[in-house]
Amino acid sequence: MYTSPPSNPAVGNCIGRLEEMMADMMVMMQEIRASSSTIGPSQPTASSTGPAQPPTDP
User: Fold this and answer.
1) 7 within domain boundaries
2) Positions of the region Disordered (predicted)?
3) Count: domains in the chain
């Protein structure tokens, strides 16, 4: 995403961590998409609002 490293090394380290997190998220999304196609949409997945919790009350 960023071609030129910023002057502040702390900012560069933060951007590097962000890029790693983004890559992990992309892999997780691909895995969720692949597993949901076989298991079904009933599997709880993490959403933008937060981690989805399975219903405990009947």
Assistant:
1) yes
2) 32-58
3) 1
